[in-house]
């Protein structure tokens, strides 16, 4: 959700709650702000009730805004609450300047190999569909909204929301009017990142879902082993060698199909 497209913080927040890909509820925000749901509804309507400065800051944290987006959200809040005409004009000028500069920055970002910021990573790893659709557009038969929706059996609005995010982040791009391709933005998740857990949980849930499929390609193996400490390390080394060999096959391989590759090997 591009906050810089909005002149009203209320319209921006209402759009965030309507966006299924973000997955936030007003009741969750009420609990986070320690206030009643009725106050949230009033503050997001066109009435005189507004979020306080402290509230609007916490709202920005709730939606994982970065520093620039947070400052813009606070500016929108000040603009809507301003009662003095000259002050309102002053704030409106700042809003337009930020919107113009954000358009230029977005244009530059799309031309460069940028990396996702933390707030974007949090969204990307929140659900398996972000990673799946990101990778899927490299396949010749999966580079339109209709094809992606049908292939993954997704809700249309959710599919559009995910694709919208991936486009805004530069992870995918539109080559022609309807054709989607991999974008220039890079994504790297550090081994120590707390989002690693989300990544593993999302893909392992898909592995569980695939158990009902009879596809001959699918392979599931589960076992509890009792063996020596030295042999535990030997099997671990074999798995690491498999991962390395997999890369040698993957790099020259043409994009034809998608699979999930999960490995679990741990002490219990």
Main beta-sheet annotation: 2 strands, antiparallel
In the sheet with the most strands, the strands line up as 1-2
Number of strands: 2
Secondary structure tally, helices: 12
Tell me the overall shape: elongated
Strand fraction equals under 5%
Mind explaining what this structure looks like?
By secondary structure, the chain is an all-alpha fold. It has a domain at 3-111. Helix content is 56%, strand content 2%. The protein has helices at 9-18, 26-33, 37-43, 53-62, 67-81, 85-111, 118-124, 128-136, 145-152, 156-168, 195-209, 229-250, and strands spanning 172-174, 180-182. The protein has a two-stranded antiparallel ribbon with strand order 1-2. Strand 1 (172-174) and strand 2 form a beta hairpin. The two termini are 42 Å apart.
Spell out the blueprint of helices and strands.
Blueprint: H1 9-18, H2 26-33, H3 37-43, H4 53-62, H5 67-81, H6 85-111, H7 118-124, H8 128-136, H9 145-152, H10 156-168, E1 172-174, E2 180-182, H11 195-209, H12 229-250
Antiparallel strand pairs: 1-2
Helix pairs in contact: 2-3, 4-5, 5-6, 8-10, 9-10
Summarize the structure.
The chain is mainly alpha-helical. It is built from twelve helices and two strands.
């Amino acid at each position: 959700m591009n906050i810089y497209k909005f002149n009203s913080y209320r319209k921006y927040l209402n759009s965030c709650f309507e966006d299924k890909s973000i997955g936030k509820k007003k009741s969750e925000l009420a609990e986070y702000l320690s206030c009643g749901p009725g106050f949230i509804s009033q503050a997001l309507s066109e009435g005189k009730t507004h979020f306080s400065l402290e509230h609007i800051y916490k709202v920005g944290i709730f939606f994982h805004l970065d520093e620039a987006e947070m400052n813009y959200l606070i500016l929108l809040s000040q603009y809507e609450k301003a009662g003095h005409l000259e002050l309102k004009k002053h704030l409106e000028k700042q809003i337009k300047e930020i919107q113009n500069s954000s358009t230029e920055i977005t244009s530059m970002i799309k031309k460069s190999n940028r990396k996702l910021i933390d707030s974007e990573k949090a969204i990307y790893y929140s659900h398996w569909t972000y990673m799946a659709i990101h990778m899927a557009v490299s396949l010749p038969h999966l580079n339109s909204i209709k094809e992606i929706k049908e292939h993954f059996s997704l809700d249309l609005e959710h599919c559009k929301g995910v694709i919208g995010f991936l486009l805004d982040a530069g992870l995918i791009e539109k080559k022609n009017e309807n054709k989607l391709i991999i974008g220039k933005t890079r994504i790297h998740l550090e081994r120590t990142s707390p989002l690693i857990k989300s990544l593993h949980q999302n893909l392992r849930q898909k592995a569980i879902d695939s158990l009902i499929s009879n596809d001959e390609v699918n392979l599931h193996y589960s076992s509890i082993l009792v063996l020596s400490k030295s042999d535990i390390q030997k099997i671990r080394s074999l798995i690491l060698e498999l991962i390395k060999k997999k890369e040698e096959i993957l790099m020259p391989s043409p994009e034809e199909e998608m699979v999930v590759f999960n490995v679990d090997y741990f002490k219990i």
